[in-house]
């Protein structure tokens, strides 16, 4: 129980630091502190939060204010390219409505695992004997040479 409370408090702190203050330098400091805390406590941040923070200068990426967003096509795929106006670092994100992030998939959730017991071993069916053929009894071969 104590671990859950600690993580909850850490996530609350990260949420507070993620808020959007008016001062961009203060926002950059908050975002850098948020990223440092998440790394130190080994916490997984939501992808939507990670995509709005610059990996280079820790700026909060707000389209039209602190970054530019462009739609690009490359080899039949659509991409969103986000460029930070502070450090000029760019990030690409795939624009595929069918794409699911790993965290959103059912098999990624710990609660979705229904049976924690390992599966029972199946009988060896590598070379089954067909039902229409009688089983042959194997006679031991004699070691005498004639």
UniProtKB/TrEMBL annotation:
Q: Which Gene3D superfamilies match?
A: 6.20.50.20
Q: Name one GO biological process term.
A: tRNA processing
Q: Where is the composition biased (Basic and acidic residues)?
A: 98-107
Q: Does the keyword Zinc apply?
A: yes
Task: Write down a Pfam family by its short name.
Answer: Rpr2
Q: Sorted alphabetically, which InterPro entries does this protein's record hold?
A: Rpr2/Snm1/Rpp21
Q: Where is this region: Disordered?
A: 98-146
Q: Which UniProt keywords apply?
A: Metal-binding, tRNA processing, Zinc
GO MF entries: metal ion binding
An annotated GO cellular component: ribonucleoprotein complex
Q: Which family does it belong to?
A: Belongs to the eukaryotic/archaeal RNase P protein component 4 family.
Task: Quote the PANTHER family the UniProt record gives.
Answer: RIBONUCLEASE P PROTEIN SUBUNIT P21 (PTHR14742:SF0), RIBONUCLEASE P SUBUNIT P21 (PTHR14742)
**What is the protein name given in its UniProt record?**
Ribonuclease P/MRP subunit p21
- Source taxonomy lineage? Eukaryota, Metazoa, Chordata, Craniata, Vertebrata
List the gene name: RPP21
């Amino acid at each position: 129980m104590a671990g859950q409370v600690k993580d909850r408090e850490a996530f609350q702190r990260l949420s507070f630091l993620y808020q959007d203050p008016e001062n961009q330098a203060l926002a950059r400091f908050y975002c850098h502190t948020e990223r440092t805390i998440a790394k130190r406590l080994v916490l997984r941040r939501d992808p939507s939060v990670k995509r709005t923070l610059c990996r280079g200068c820790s700026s909060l990426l707000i389209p039209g204010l602190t970054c530019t967003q462009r739609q690009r096509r490359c080899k039949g795929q659509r991409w969103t390219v986000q460029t930070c106006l502070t450090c000029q670092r760019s990030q690409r994100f795939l624009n595929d409505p069918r794409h699911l992030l790993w965290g959103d998939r059912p098999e990624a959730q710990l609660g979705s695992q229904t049976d924690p017991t390992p599966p029972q071993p199946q009988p060896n069916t590598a070379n089954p004997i067909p039902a229409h053929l009688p089983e042959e009894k194997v006679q031991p071969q004699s070691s005498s040479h004639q």
